[in-house]
Amino acid sequence: MGGEGGDRAGGPGAGRTARRDGAVRAAVEQGLLGPGSPVVGLLDVIGIRESAAELKAAFDAVTAPGTPVLHAFAVKATPLVPVLRLLHEEGIGAEVASPGELALARAAGVPPARTVLDSPAKTPAELREALALGIAVNVDNPQELHRVDGLARSAAGLSGPPGSARAGGIPSPIGIRVNPQVGAGSIEALSTATATSKFGVALRDEGAREWVVRAYLDRPWLTRLHTHTGSQGVPLSLMARGVAETYALAEEINRRAGRHQVDTVDIGGGLPVNFASEATAPTYAQYARMLAGTVPGLFDGRYGLVTEFGRSLLAKHGTVVARVEYTKSAGGRPVAVTHAGVQVVTRTVYAPQSWPLRIAAHDGGGRPKRGPAVVQDVAGPACFAGDLLARGRELPLLEQGDHVAALDTGAYCFAHHYAYNSLVRPGVHGFAPDGAGGVAFAEVRRAQTVEEVVAEAGGARADALTRGHLP
Ligand SMILES: Cc1ncc(COP(=O)(O)O)c(C=O)c1O
């Protein structure tokens, strides 16, 4: 997409649509999709690179020259090592929220200095590892701060390189996550800034603001402040208010400390994704301009910035493609039974009102399918009635052997397998032009085998509950 949310020519997202259609067809022609592998995930490498570039340009345009800005991709959105490596190559770091995510970021080669650890439930071992590596940590609550205090006291063996700002002290940049309690968006489960959200220190609770300020005044090594005021469904204006409140708190801490103690504000991620059409909306540029308009002081060069976008970097660049195994009719409604359902688009299946997806119909050869629109259901393979990709959707009538593409599924979907019915994890392939007018694929994640399903389900311990292991 170029400029404000669209491709350079042919309307919003036209380049993306053409690349994706070409990839679906090539995936069928090259045998990535077929009777033996009836569902795959595809990732548009050009699209991912473009989004990374747009993110950097958007904040470059509103920050004072020389402002340190770390864009840390929220690994939870697409926890695939080659994706993290691609983003790292594009200058994007990693926000991690579990030992697994940290291991993925390290396997991708993301350096500790470009990694940020969040999560509301960090164990002592995780904190110790992060501090030993020099990874930035956002502390979630007073009990966690107490743990970090303990590590800070024994930080002699952990301090940064001689001569560095952190030599002789705690080796990681540390901040506290605050919840400015600015309110909810349209999806309750993703609203992190409600009055009772489980995340961060609830700033408007009695005594909480003063507690946070004191925590900083007592600990010169607390140099960052973090907020993530929402994800999909939260309006930009509400996110900007959350950032504004966090900035005001940073200013208050620095005023009372009499020095520029908080030097970096981590504004989290949360830019919503448009799942209704090809257009990228809102854009990073719109959000960055809104932030700069609402909180100008945050962008005047006195503060470094960290961002933690996830969904907005990847969602529109991923597609699940599945074969139509059977078609039938029930109660007068045509139903296409496909191989993509709850295992790959879990949120859409369980909360269809909150997570509707666009579905594109392709024929048996992978070409976009034409024909009059017919109201039909697109079902997944799992054995419960609600396993539907789309209900009552108008599409060219799907036939046996056709394909369906579930669009905008590059984040929080096919990389997050849900093992219902012991359905195997599908393979994931990145695609890009091959330089000769065709499409080249690279395997990102191999499809799981049935043997692996058995092994992971205790296959080597079949006797565990029946012979001798228990009284
Ligand atoms: C702390 C934190 N940062 C960043 C993100 C990424 O949010 P999004 O994918 O909506 O950009 C999340 C999502 O849950 C989060 O909890």
Tell me about this structure.
With 471 residues, the chain is of the alpha/beta class. Helix content is 28%, strand content 21%. It contains 12 helices and 18 strands. It has helices spanning 14-29, 45-60, 81-89, 99-107, 124-133, 142-153, 208-218, 236-257, 284-294, 311-314, 346-350, 450-456, and strands at residues 39-44, 69-74, 93-96, 115-117, 136-139, 174-179, 201-202, 222-226, 264-266, 304-307, 318-330, 333-338, 359-362, 373-379, 388-396, 403-406, 427-433, 439-445. Strands 1, 11, 12, 13, 14, 15, 16, 17 and 18 form a 9-stranded mixed beta sheet that branches. Strands 2-3-4-5-6-8-9-10 form an 8-stranded parallel β-barrel, surrounded by 7 helices. Helix 2 runs parallel beside helix 9 (284-294), helix 7 packs across helix 8 and helix 8 packs across helix 9. The longest helix has 22 residues, at 236-257. The structure holds pyridoxal-5'-phosphate (PLP).
Rg, rounded, reads: 24 Å
Q: H/E element string?
A: HEHEHEHEHEHEEHEHEHEHEEHEEEEEEH
Stated plainly, the CATH topology of one domain is called TIM Barrel
Small ligands present: pyridoxal-5'-phosphate
Strand content: 15-25%
Count of helix runs: 12
What are the main properties of this structure?
18 strands; eight-stranded parallel barrel; globular; 12 helices; binds pyridoxal-5'-phosphate; TIM Barrel; alpha/beta
Present the secondary structure layout.
Layout: H1 14-29, E1 39-44, H2 45-60, E2 69-74, H3 81-89, E3 93-96, H4 99-107, E4 115-117, H5 124-133, E5 136-139, H6 142-153, E6 174-179, E7 201-202, H7 208-218, E8 222-226, H8 236-257, E9 264-266, H9 284-294, E10 304-307, H10 311-314, E11 318-330, E12 333-338, H11 346-350, E13 359-362, E14 373-379, E15 388-396, E16 403-406, E17 427-433, E18 439-445, H12 450-456
Parallel strand pairs: 1-17, 2-3, 2-10, 3-4, 4-5, 5-6, 6-7, 6-8, 8-9, 9-10, 12-14
Antiparallel strand pairs: 1-11, 11-12, 11-16, 13-16, 14-15, 17-18
Residues 74, 76-77, 95, 118, 228, 231-232, 268-271, 308-312 line the site of pyridoxal-5'-phosphate.
